[in-house]
Structures are given as structure tokens and as C-alpha cells.
């Protein structure tokens, strides 16, 4: 925990009605949303740095607590056991969310790495760890291609990020892929030349491009 | 005919998609395709020299076909290698021991890549050690599960005591503790 976290926690505790428990529940909700969004949306979303950090800190504490408690297990068998099981189910689920979230992001990063690298707004969505991973993985792949055949080709054919010649070698996320969304507020979106009205609580299938800004501000929820 | 070899390579890649294991790396085929590209390049060079003299439609057409063939060959090579690289990545994430037969099917360069990618993944997992990134991507249902032992796996130590995993015995254990053994096929979830 660094200084910023201490400050944040202090501030959070000062706000009325915002105790640690509520904050925790809120974070969990946000983690689920981040996970669902990341899985259902074609493009890479910005990394939830602070959120993940907070959750990781709690996980660490919980793991410590479990270890501490299981030492006492022999003495106060029953009551502790029940509590441990509850804490562990919770822990398993949160760990799963983060695991799946991270792996989904890695899949997208691997798939679109050339595109992400060529574009500053896209690169800014990655965490430092992800950025290092992407650079290194690309390096390894290039090394593999080069040593297998690429270096033996005529020089004019050695690039792997050409966009000319009818076929682009850089794969981009398909923003026109349809997504299921639930509207959380009334909005109007443009689809081609038509306007589509979104009413609160309605469920729609739309091209991601039409609702991508609303997803980011939280006016629609991806299903 | 130009492009036939690359077609063979793509067929092999297509077959690979439906196999559990990566088949043998097509070294000779890849080499011949590279050779084909180089001879095409030579031909293209000659054609370019002649073309500079006058505006000759036949010559231009030939040149165009040469370039198309080279590019297509290159794309096939890349597609083939990318598919294999992706499969290698999956192997690393599955975190199981890679059998000797599988290793023998890889080219030396691929083996090298596999090793380096493995290091990269471990490095990435480092800051997230509490999450076990290689773990199951199925949502967890129960903390404790019943498992049956399929192969002797010796003793394991957990927070809930020591289990002696002998074949055909059955245990009620914490899923997280035995995840790896299930993946490796020692235990079966009931």
C-alpha cells in the first residue's frame, strides 16, 4: 500500500455512508462490469488500474487471514470453519474474475498487437505489465518469423506490417460487430442514416460502433 | 505451378486446426516456398529491366503476376507460422508438461520460441501471483469438490491436512488445492 492508497482510504472513510464494506461491494460490482464489458466488446478497453490494485490488496489480506485462521482451526473447529468456507468462496470468485479479465485482455492484445502499437490512444489502454508483455511477445514472434523464413525472402517482402496491396497485415478490432446492450438511460444513437431511440431498461442488439461511447460513460450496459 | 507449394502448406495448417497436437514442422516445404519466392523475384527483376524500354502490356502483366505470387506465398508462410505460434502459446498457458513427441514435431526455432514465451508468461504472472493466471477459466461453483484419484500422485499437503493420493481413492478437497492435478489428469472431478 502506498501513500496514495492511504489517503484514498482516509478520504473514503470520511465520506458519510461510505464505509469499507460498501466500498468493497461497489468495487466488486465494478469489477464484474469491467469483466463483462471486456469480454463482450470487440475492442480493448482501458485497463482498470486503480480498481484492480484495490481488489488485489484485499485479496492479499484475505489470503493472510485464511492462513492465520487455519492455524487456529484445530482449537475452535466449527465456527471458524464455516467462516473460512464463506471467505474462500468469495476469494475464489474474485480471483476468477480478475483471472478471466486479464486473460481476455491478453487475448485481445495478442490479436491486435500491431494495431495497438501503431496507435497511441490504444497503447494508453494497457497497463505497464501488459505493455511490456506485448512488446516482448511481438519481438519473439518476429524473431521466430525471421529465423524460419522471413530473413531469406527478398528485402522488399520482409515487412510484417504492410497495409498496401489490397490486404492489410494489421488486424484491427471489428467495431461493427453486433453487441447486446441494456439501456440504463434514455438516449438516441445513429445507426447508418437512421436514429434509434434507446429507452431505459430496453434491451437492444446494435453494432458496437453505435453504442461505444455510451458504454464508456455507463449509459448502456453490455450483456 | 506457382503457388501450389503454398497451397499444400495451407492444407497442412488447416489439418492442424483439427488436431490436438501440432504435427511435424514442414521444413522442406517452407524452404521450397522460400526458393520459389526468390526465383520469382529474379524473374521480376529481369522483367523490370526490360520494361523500362517501352510500354509493353505483356511484360507488365507478367510482372504483376510475379508480384502477386510472391505476396501470396509470403502470406501463406506467415499464416502457417502464426497458427503454429498460437498453438505454442496455448501450450504454454495450459502449463502441462509437453510430451517428447510434441517437442520433436517442432523446429529448433519453434522450441526456442516456446522456451522464451514461457519465460515471458512467468514474468507477466509475477505481479499477479495471488490470482493464479494459469488456473481454470471456468467460473468456480464450489470451494470443495469430490475427486477420484486416477493415477497415484503421492502425498499432497493442504491447509486442511495431508492427503495420500492412491489410485481409486476418493477425497473431498478444496478445488484450488488440486486444480493442477486435475489439469494433469491425476484426479477426476466427480
TrEMBL record, chain A:
Question: Which biological processes are named by the entry's GO terms?
Answer: DNA-templated DNA replication; double-strand break repair via break-induced replication
Lineage of the native species?
Eukaryota, Fungi, Dikarya, Ascomycota, Saccharomycotina
Q: What does this protein do?
A: The GINS complex plays an essential role in the initiation of DNA replication.
Q: Which CDD domains does the record cross-reference, listed alphabetically?
A: GINS_A_Sld5
Query: What region holds the DNA replication complex GINS protein SLD5 C-terminal domain?
Result: 173-221
**Which PANTHER family does its entry note?**
DNA REPLICATION COMPLEX GINS PROTEIN SLD5, SLD5 PROTEIN
ATP-binding among the record's keywords?
no
The molecule here is called DNA replication complex GINS protein SLD5
Key word Nucleus present in the record? yes
User: What keywords appear on the UniProt entry?
Assistant: DNA replication, Nucleus
**Positions in coiled-coil regions:** none
Q: What family does the database annotate? A: Belongs to the GINS4/SLD5 family.
Entry GO terms, CC:
GINS complex
Q: Where in the cell is it found?
A: Nucleus
From TrEMBL, chain B:
State the superkingdom: Eukaryota
Q: Where is the GINS subunit domain?
A: 46-126
Where in this chain does the record put each DNA replication complex GINS protein PSF1 C-terminal domain? Answer: 142-189
Q: Cite the InterPro entries for this sequence.
A: GINS_A, GINS_bundle-like_dom_sf, GINS_Psf1, PSF1_C
Name any Gene Ontology BP term. DNA strand elongation involved in mitotic DNA replication
**Main localization (coarse):** nucleus
Q: Which family does it belong to?
A: Belongs to the GINS1/PSF1 family.
Subunit field text: Component of the GINS complex which is a heterotetramer of SLD5, PSF1, PSF2 and PSF3.
Function of this protein?
A: Required for correct functioning of the GINS complex, a complex that plays an essential role in the initiation of DNA replication, and progression of DNA replication forks. GINS complex seems to bind preferentially to single-stranded DNA.
Query: Which PANTHER family would you find in this protein's record?
Result: DNA REPLICATION COMPLEX GINS PROTEIN PSF1 (PTHR12914:SF2), PARTNER OF SLD5 (PTHR12914)
Q: What is this protein called?
A: DNA replication complex GINS protein PSF1
Amino acid at each position: 500500500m502506498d501513500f496514495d492508497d492511504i489517503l484514498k482510504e482516509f478520504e473514503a472513510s470520511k465520506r458519510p455512508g461510505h464505509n469499507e464494506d460498501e466500498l468493497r461491494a461497489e468495487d466488486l460490482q465494478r469489477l464484474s462490469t469491467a469483466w463483462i464489458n471486456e469480454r463482450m466488446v470487440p475492442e480493448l478497453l482501458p485497463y482498470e488500474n486503480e480498481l484492480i490494485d484495490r481488489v488485489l490488496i484485499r485479496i492479499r489480506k484475505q489470503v493472510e487471514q485464511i492462513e492465520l485462521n487455519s492455524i487456529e482451526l484445530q482449537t475452535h473447529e466449527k465456527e471458524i470453519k464455516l467462516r473460512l468456507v464463506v471467505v474462500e468462496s468469495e476469494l475464489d470468485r474474485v480471483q476468477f474474475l480478475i483471472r478471466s479479465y486479464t486473460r481476455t485482455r491478453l487475448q485481445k492484445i495478442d490479436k491486435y498487437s500491431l494495431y495497438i502499437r501503431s496507435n497511441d490512444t490504444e497503447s494508453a489502454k494497457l497497463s505497464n505489465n501488459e505493455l511490456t508483455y506485448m512488446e516482448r511477445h511481438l519481438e519473439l514472434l518476429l524473431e521466430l518469423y525471421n529465423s524460419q523464413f522471413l530473413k531469406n525472402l527478398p528485402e522488399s517482402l520482409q515487412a510484417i506490417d504492410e497495409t498496401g496491396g489490397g490486404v492489410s497485415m494489421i488486424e484491427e478490432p471489428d467495431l461493427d460487430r453486433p453487441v447486446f446492450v441494456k439501456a440504463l438511460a434514455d438516449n438516441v444513437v445513429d445507426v447508418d442514416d437512421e436514429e434509434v431511440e434507446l429507452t431505459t431498461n430496453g434491451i437492444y442488439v446494435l453494432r458496437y460502433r453505435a453504442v461505444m461511447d455510451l458504454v464508456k460513460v455507463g449509459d448502456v450496459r453490455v450483456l | 505451378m506457382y503457388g501450389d507449394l503454398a497451397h499444400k502448406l495451407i492444407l497442412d495448417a488447416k489439418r492442424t486446426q483439427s488436431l490436438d497436437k501440432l504435427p511435424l514442422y514442414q521444413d522442406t516445404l517452407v524452404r521450397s516456398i522460400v526458393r520459389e519466392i526468390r526465383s520469382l523475384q529474379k524473374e521480376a527483376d529481369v522483367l523490370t529491366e526490360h520494361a523500362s524500354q517501352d510500354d509493353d502490356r505483356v511484360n507488365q502483366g507478367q510482372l504483376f503476376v510475379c508480384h502477386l505470387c510472391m505476396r501470396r506465398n509470403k502470406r501463406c508462410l506467415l499464416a502457417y507460422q502464426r497458427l503454429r505460434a498460437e498453438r505454442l502459446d496455448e501450450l504454454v498457458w495450459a502449463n502441462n508438461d509437453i510430451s517428447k513427441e510434441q517437442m520433436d514435431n517442432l523446429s529448433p526455432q519453434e522450441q526456442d520460441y516456446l522456451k522464451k514465451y514461457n519465460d515471458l508468461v512467468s514474468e507477466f504472472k509475477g505481479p499477479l501471483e495471488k490470482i493464479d493466471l494459469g488456473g481454470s477459466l471456468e467460473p468456480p461453483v464450489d470451494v470443495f469438490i469430490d475427486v477420484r484419484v486416477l493415477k497415484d500422485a503421492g502425498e499432497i499437503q493442504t491447509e486442511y491436512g495431508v492427503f495420500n493420493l492412491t489410485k481409486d481413492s476418493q477425497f473431498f478437497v478444496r478445488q484450488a488445492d488440486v486444480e493442477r492435478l486435475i489439469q494433469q489428469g491425476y484426479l477426476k472431478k466427480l
